[in-house]
Amino acid sequence: MSQRVLILCTGNSARSQMAEGWLRHLAGDRYAAFSAGTHPSVVNPLAIRAMQEVGIDISGQRSKSLTVYLDQPFDYVITVCDQAAEACPIFPGPAQRLHWSFPDPAAVTGTNDVRLAAFRVVRDAIAERLRGWLAAQ
Question: CATH top-level class for 3-136?
């Protein structure tokens, strides 16, 4: 049976969405990946585009509130932004809490190319962190 992982961020629009896509891609059936936000919005088109560049399609994912998952058990709850780490409730069951702080690529201003570059940097940092975590499991 696969372990359940919930990845949390504030808006569930970029970092947590990319992390969910990466975990599904890298871990296969070992983990069931979910993501949510403390204040969900919509999946950022630049997150979708950055992930498509590495062959991962997250266009079918949607932004969800963490309240959807409060009554579900998780093995791991990973926060990927500082605000979500502070706002994250205690989850029932054996959930191990992990906090990995990544900068918010959606906060970057400038041209579309400058903004997309910020998403690429965070995308790659999330992949590196997940690869290291999975190798240690």
Answer: alpha beta
- Which of 5, 7, 9, 127 is labelled catalytic? 9
Which is catalytic among the residues 27, 43, 47, 81? 81
82-96 pLDDT, tens digit each: 765 566 555 656 789
Task: Please pick, among 33, 36, 66, 88, the residue that the annotation labels catalytic.
Answer: 88
pTM for the whole structure: 0.92
DSSP letters, 75-115, are SEEEE-SHHHHHHPPPPSSSPEEEE-----GGG--S-HHHH
Where do the domains of the chain lie? 3-136
> Catalytic: 9?
yes
Instruction: Indicate if 81 belongs to the active site.
Output: yes
How far is residue 5's CA from residue 123's CA, in Å, rounded to a whole number? 18
